[in-house]
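EI: anyone free to look at a 268-residue chain?
SC: sure, send it
EI:
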Amino acid sequence: MATILITGASDGLGRALAEDLAADGRHTLLLHGRDPGRLAEVAAATGAETYRADLSSLAEVRRLAADVAATHDRLDVLVNNAGVGFHATGTKRLTSPDGHELRLAVNYLAPVLLTRELLPLLRRARPSRVVNVASVGQQPIDFDDPQLTHAYTDVAAYCRSKLALISHGLDLAEELSGSGITVNSLHPASYMPTTMSHASGMDVVDSLEQGVAATRRLVDAPDLAGITGRYFDGEKEGRAASEAYDPAYRKQLAALTESLLPSRHLRS
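SC: here you go
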């Protein structure tokens, strides 16, 4: 039995993963979402505990971590799945309550902060796993304009946030090497039949079942015990954009992250 927290679990891949795990009847599932109605539906379908939070707010990210820690003293798996996608017609640039570009806030800063806040619980459950749901769509951040204040597109914002998440995951895996906590990222599948994919205007390419299988493999597959610092494309190990393996890029990303999330929020 494992205690597993899945963010963005009230819809799409997160909900499908929760239902797949619940079918085993052997895990304690902690499901995060933003919409209370959808959360109630997934709770009824899975018997899971639910946690409501808006991950665009760093204060709510910290509250989510505190709420989990208040009722659980260990966490075996954290699946950072929640995210904001892009739209067929494009969207205007939006900012979070903290003033950060929205996709940077939700797709990158939130999982980074949540993971750090939950490290004490992950340490108590060792061996434990962090799974970051990323994307094959990846672009490097322009460190002269990390918040995309110029030439904004939601596609660029999305792709930059996802490469940042992969890159940070590689750094965190190195930081936690030998600790018993593994950190891996994946592109689960391409344009699954989800709300996010529908909004993008793209035709369905892969099934939701493919995405669930790929993500679940990182959650509990025995053959991945101890495997860390990897990027997976579906169920196969892949190669992220070159910047993810560039020490100079990762150093700049770490400095940016520290400036946006003060060190008191990044305690390990």
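EI: The radius of gyration is 17 Å.
SC: 👍
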